Structures are given as structure tokens and as C-alpha cells.
Amino acid sequence: MKWFGRRETHQSARTAEGGRIDRSRTVRFTFDGAQFTGHPGDSLASALLAHGVHLMGRSFKYHRPRGVLAAGSEESNALVHVDRGGGRETPNLRATQVEIYEGLNARSQNRHPSLAFDLGSAAGLMSRFLPAGFYYKTFMWPASFWRRVYEPAIRAAAGLGVAPMDADPDRYLRRYAHCETLVIGAGPAGVAAALDAAAVGGRVILCDEQAELGGSLLSEPHAVIDGLAGAEWLAGALSDLARHPNVTLLPRCTAFGWYPDNMVGLAERVTDHLATPGVHQPRERLWQVRAGAVVIAAGAHERPLVFPDNDRPGIMLAGAARAYLNRYGVRPGQRAVIVTACDSAYACALDLHRAGVMIAAIADIRADVTGPAVEAVRAAGLLVRTGVSITGSTGHLRVTGALFGTEWVACDTILMSGGWTPSLHMHSQSRGKIRFDGANFLPEAMAGQQSVGSCAGVFDLTGSLPGRVVSGVIAPRGGFAGLVPGAKAKRAFVDFQNDVTAKDLLLATREGFRSIEHVKRYTTTGMATDQGKTSNLNALAIVADQLGTAIPHVGLTTFRPPYTPVTFGTIAGTSRGALFDPERRAPMHDWAVSRGAVFEDVGTWKRAHCFPAPGEVMHETLARECRAVRTEAGIFDASTLGKIEVVGPDAAEFLNRLYTNAWLTLGVGRCRYGLMLSEAGFVMDDGVVGRIAEDRFHVTTTTGGAPRVLNHMEDYLQTEFPELRVWLTSTTEQWATIAVQGPRARDILAPHVTGIDLAHAAFPHMSVREGRICGVPTRLFRVSFTGELGFEINVPADYGPAVWRALMASGHLTPYGTETMHVLRAEKGFVIVGQETDGTVTPDDLGLCRMIARSKRDFVGKRSLRRPDMLVANRKQLVGLLTDDPSTVLEEGAQIVEDPGQPVPMRMIGHVTSSYPSATLGHSIALALVEAGRSRMGTVLHVPMPERMIAVRVVEPVFYDKAGARLDG
Amino acid sequence: MLIIPCPYCGARPENEFRYAGEAHIARPADPEALSDAAWADFLYMRTNPKGRHAERWRHVHGCGRFFNCVRDTVTDRIERTYPAGTAP
Ligand SMILES: [Zn+2]
Fold first, then answer.
1. Exposed site from A699, A818, A879, A969, fewest CB < 10 Å?
2. Chain B nearest CA to A86, separation (Å)
3. Model pTM?
4. Where are the domains positioned within chain B?
5. Which CATH architecture best describes the domain B3-25+33-83?
6. Rounded CA gap, A676 and B42, in Å?
7. In 3D, which of A453, A535, A397, A538 has the Cα closest to residue A70?
8. How many of the other CB atoms lie within 10 Å of CB of A381?
């Protein structure tokens, strides 16, 4: 507990000079409420390290104290929550990628109550409950136990940051871009590739996830390239690229996903690094880049060594330590132990030694280490022990020593290197092939993309810069994967972010898992948000070793987007709020709004659900609207009905093949209710079709079905009946459709209509006439979806509101909404496709046999109606249901059973499809689909509800005016 | 996102198109003459190959035309596209 509450108040670990930070300026920020300072160019991690602070997080499952492991996007421990104020909160950011700015407010995560003192980690409490596969094992326990005890406890204890609860106030944009060459990664190999591509000509985009372009060169002070210091060469190359008119440089821009045909998603962080973002700047920008060729220069990730307690704060990757020292001017500690299997750690040892860090020990797993790297270290007077493995560490909130068997070496930082793993993420996402060269998985070249530099296994700078003369750098030879020799597996962490140890992996193989895909899912190794960047190869090596097989036989897991987490905002862009799914408004929408209509969503349409008068409650409104239609007349906006103009010499023949009814005999000026089936024989859509001329039909569809019906029609017209001379045009948006329904409908319309004789004999039910209404052209239909005398007035959409208002001025019309429309049609037993049907209902199921034209040898769906399953006696059929208590309204969707006394689970024989209180009838009504329903007329069935069983009587599905006498007014 | 060459409009991004199932399954000229099994075969049985697949697409947010396409279901590579009603 000696570190509890302690804070370094000055940048004690900062070097006197060097690095790429701007020492002339000081930036103040807070972490967990405490004040810190840093310099422009610092990451949050480097600025905290400058204060000697390693402890930055708590681990996912065990709440172990964790320090920063890496210096880049592969960081798995130091995840922080950044609060930019005003509801701008982002959890789970890697402290290594968060740039500091004046006023940055960051805090640690997954700790209760504080980072230094965490209840969850007390005595390793959680580790007993969370072995490999605990999710699966726990699910086998009694369900109630899981729900009440384990899940709440685990949810509270395990996890990442806390998602903000408020809507994200930031703005996100999206843009498309095309280029001949996209280069992913601006390290030396990427910069060289961009220079080469720019020289050839064509558009070049060079993106890099870091704030500063340069990759490994930013941490490499000794490189000499073509006679220039590495930093000088880089500055020249970047300035050449920046001046080139065809080159776009995108720093802070992560290539996160690869999609077919070289479409690459880039997430650009535009303002997160700014203390005061510009008013017009988006927070992030999604780039969808279509590239002729993609050059992947994604680099490599250094592997940790797997040994017990390899996760204490102060233990980090040797390459990361070198980056903190050389790029940020920060010493990772005062007394370092370096453990390695790779020459690159010697470069780290030399740089630290020169910077005044005491090198307490260097231990190399390899027995035989030769070459310029180790010689340079020995020449500097440092002792290198070969063939020696680290076996553990001591300390709590900061490492205090390294264990080599029984020997303890005091230190405050352990720097490790197991060698470098090429970053295969983008290559793998592009479905590129991968081979194993005995040490690493490497990408195979493929058309349209190539990997260069260390992600292609070319680890030395000379190989990454073809055609350039390079000197001064230590090539990272060697490497090791797996549990280090002689170390125990317990608490030897492989996947730091998901808290998976070597012991967990060994347990999984003992329990019979062989494929890495299974081991991964069972142990969750590699499944954290870091996608196993530092852990995959170690996990594979441990499993392969345990199974006595080679790594390629265990397999490599698939890499999936995103490379690093992408915000929902970036993906959504401007498609949120009102623009998420733009709403469609009927022509009379504004009038309905002005009359206080209550709206409902029908597909993407806003439809007036009802028009409450002041002081009314819902059932009073509906009763009034229904009564008006049944006794006087109502007016209804039916403009959302789909409309398709079917035109051409073969139009009637076409409809004949697409609908079940006969169309050839339909006279001009007549309408017919059309039923459309899928080829499988199920009801797909319905609607009234009017014949305007010999070669012209006005087809209506359901509100939601219009696009589907048009696609269905186009499909048959283009591919099955291409010989028919027919043209299809969607006219849904062109017509405003006003339904006027009720006994007084004709009287109300008459004064406004010219050129059409409205008399019953001249204009019978199911007719259509062209003429004028209120002076504007109309297609006037005499149709009824209410059972009353009815008309549907189609006028060009822009005239709709004027015609509507003129009709309303008669003073005898009551506007009604979709709910009243539903009640009125249900009273008549008219079905609604999508409510009474669900894609498995035939015309006969609905009692619509009469809609099938027997005379037609063929129409779409006809043959299917004879299939054996369509003819069985117990198909569900449409019936009406009445309850004993007239005020009981069944719930739509409720199940129906025959015997209320049967044991649960009961055999369900149908369900309620529509149910309403009917003010006209004075009792509730319901429609239902019930097995062999038509043979059950008069019988009693039961609707089980949570609180009671409701008895229902099966009746004909027509409740009102069975003879249809009211149609003629 | 795939680039799909519409036979009528040229290369366009995938989100302008809608998939429309396997190609070259012609509707029988006289469905009534088919046995139940043969009709069910026409309705429901598809080849679902691993590899080359002749399929239908519609350029729904473009020219509106249905056309055929040979695509490899493993690599997603489109070999060629050609008008509906013509041989692969
Ligand atoms: Zn097209």
C-alpha cells in the first residue's frame, strides 16, 4: 500500500533533452482528478510516464493493477475514459493514442473505488470464479442462480469502461475518395512506397493512425538514410509528398476495415486532440476509399514474454520503452531489467544506458547470441546473460524485482521482447493468403495489394527502404513465442486485455480443444478489442507446444474489422435522428398536423392514426370517427397506398399472369380487387386495380408493399415474360388519394365533381371515371374499404391539400385516421395483408377462393395451390372471434387453444390477428387464424393470458352488414 | 463493397444493386403439367455451390434491370455479368 495516494508532481522521468515533443510549451491535464503536465507531442501515456506513473488501469477480469505495455495502438492495458465536456465522453481509449491538450480530462476504468485500491482485486477474489470457459460452464448452472447471483456480480466486476448515457452531441462526416494507390501506414516502408507511387503518377493517399507520420523512424535516432539522419530524411520525404498535388496525407487516420474490391474504410480523428475544436469541424470523418492498388505498410507488433506476473506496472515492451525514451524523452524507470529473445532489445538497452538508466540485468533466452547487437552492448560494459529465462516478478502497484529461478534482481521496470509479429490484419481482412516461415505468419502477395516492410516480415530498415543506403540501426534478429522455458503457467499472461493466462490455454487443451478457433472462443484469448495484436502468436505457440504439433497445424484465427475500435458516430455519420431513416409524409400531412392528429409509423410513412377533438380520450375519438362514417361520411388520407401505372398493349395479359383474378374481361372504367400471390402460392399483396383504358391500368398496392410489388412485377416482366409489351411506373408519390366514405359521400362530392355522372346506375360500385373535382383532373374510384358507399379521389399530389380543404368546407365530413379505418374494415371482415397474413397464408385460408379465376390455366402461384400441404384439412383459416364479455378486447397476437385444462406447454391452434372494440356493434370483435377454423363455427375456444383464460366463440369473420346492402348508400 | 459491372450501365458499387437469387431457373412453361415433386424442386431447390455461382442481380438504384452474374462464393470475385435470358 505504500503507493496508495502517491502522485509525482513533476516530470521526474523526463530527460533533459531530445525527443519530438515541444519542450517550449507546457500543457496541463488531469488524470483521475490529479493535475499533470506534459508537452505538445506527448501521448497521455508518455506524459504520465514522465511523472513516473505506470499504473494506468485495472485488468478486465481480475482487476490486477496494470501499467502501460506498449506505445501504440496495440496497447491492451492502459484504457482510459476521456471526458471532453458537454456530454462528450469516450470510454476505452488507449492512453498511448490519446494526445494531450490543455485541459484534457481523463480517468482510469474498471476500478472500484480507485486505481490504487480496488476491492475486486482483493486476494485475487475473482480469479477463483473465472477460469477458462467460465461463461460456458456457468451457463450450465441453474438458470435462476445465473440470473440472480452470477450475472449481476460478474457484470459489475468485469468489463471495460462505462458507456455514456446521453446522446452524442458531436458531428460526424463521411466522404468517398478514389485513388490509384492507397498506402496504409506511414512508417519508413509506407513513406517510401508513397514516394514511389507518386513518382509513377496517379492519386496517392497515405494514411497513418498516429498524429505524426513516420512510424518506427520517430523512435529511431541512429538511422542514417542516404547520408541523412533518419529524422532529416523523413522530414524531406514528407515535405516532398505534401507538396505533390496528387498526394493526400492523412495523419490520425486508421485504416480499420477492408471490404471487397479494394474498398478500405478509414476513420479520421479530426478534433479529439484539440483543446478548442473549430465550430465547423466534425469530430471524426469516415473515408470510404476505393483504391486501384493498396500497399499495406502496417508494421509489426512486439511480443511480450509469457512468464508469471508478467503484467505488473513497470513491465513493458522493450520497443515501447525505446519509443518513450527516444520519441517522448521519458525514461521508463531508473533501474531496468531487460529480458529478451530478440536483438532489438539490445538497441533499447544501449539507448537507456546512454540516457542514464541503470541496466540491472540483461537476460536472453537464446543460449547462443552473437552479432553486432550483443557485441555493441558488451562493448558498452553491460553484462549479457544468455540461455537465461525470467521466471517471475515481484511488486504490486509497481514492479520491484525480477526473478530468475531463485535469484531476485531489484528493478523498477522490466523491459521484454519476444521478437516481432507482422501485422496481418489488413492482409487477412482482404482474404489474402498467409504462409508460415517457421517463426512468423507472413502475407502472400496478391493482385491489387501488397505488403511491404515489417508487416511482410522485412524487419530491418534496409529491406524496408529498397534502393536507399541505410546504416546505424540494429536489425531485430531472433524471437520467441510461447511460455518461456522453465516458467510456470499460472498468472503468466498471454492476452493482457482479456486476462487470459498460459494456464487457461493449457486447461483448454486438456479439456479437448484442438483448433485455435475453439480455444479462442473457450478462453476468449485474442477476442478483446485489441484483437490479440500482442498475444495471438504466443497463444498459438503454447497450444501447439502442448499438443506436440507445429503452429500452422493449430491454425491462425481470422482477423476482422475494425483494426482498432471505431466509434458508432463515425459509422453512422449524418445518418442519425431525422436523417437516420427519412420519414415520408402524405400530401395532406400538414393539414393533419394542424388538426392535432396523432400519427403512427407505417413503414417509413407518417400516417394520421386518429384526430382527437379537445377533451376526448382515445376510445371516444375512435367511436366518434366510426359513427361519423357509418351515419354520415368520413374523409381519410389514403395517399400512402402504393400505386403503379401498368401500360402497354399486353397490360391486361400481364396482370392476368400476376394476379389470381381474371383481367382480360374487365371493362374500361371498371375496377377489381386483385390478389397477388408469390410463386409459392402465399398471399403477397392485394389492392384495387382500375382499367383506365384498353392498355392502361391504375394498380394500387398496400402501403408497405409498393416497392416489393413493383420489384416482383419487374422481375416477371423482365425475366419470365419479356415478350409482353408492358411498362411499369411507380406513381405512389404522384397521386394524392382522398377516401370519402359514408352514406352521404355522394351528396358531399356531387357539387365539386364535373364530367362524371355520380348516379349509381352510371357509376356503380367498383368503377373508375376520369373527370374533374374542384376543377382539377381526377381519377375517381367508387370503392369501399369500410362497407359504406365510398369514393377514392385521386388528384395530382400537389392539388391534394386544396381538394381536401374544399371538401372539408362542406361541413359534413369527419376526418378519420388509420385506427378507425382498421376498425371499420374489421367489422366487414376485410383482411389487411401483413396483419391477417404472414407469408404462409393462402387465398383459401382467408376464405378468398372466389378470387381464384378457375378459367385461367396459369398465374404466378397457381400451381403451388395444389401442393399437398396447401390442401390439408387443418390449415389455419380466417374466422371471427367474440368474447362473452362485450368489453373484453383480446390482444392481437394472443395464442388460441382448444382445451384450457391441458398441461403447459399447451398445443396452440391459432392466433388473434386483429382485435378492436366496435362502437357500432357495441361489443369487441376479433379476427383470427385457427386450424380448420371454418369447421369450428359456434364452438368455444380459449385464449390463455398471463392473468386469466378468456373463452371465445368462433363466428363468421363478417360482423356488420353481411349482405353488403350499405355499399350503395 | 463489391464493384458490380451492370451490363447496361457499367461498373457500379454494390449498394446500387439487390441480389435476386440463383440464375437460370426458368419458370416452367406449363406448371400444371409438373408433378408436385418437380414443382417443389423448381420452387425451393438451389445449388448453393462453394465456388462459381450463376446468380441474378438487379440494378435497383440504377437502370432497374435484372441481369445475370457469375460470382465465386469463396473469393467474392465476379467473373462476368450478362443480360437476363442469355446463356452463361
Ligand atoms: Zn444498370
1. A969
2. 36
3. 0.88
4. 3-25+33-83
5. 2-Layer Sandwich (3.30)
6. 20
7. A535
8. 8
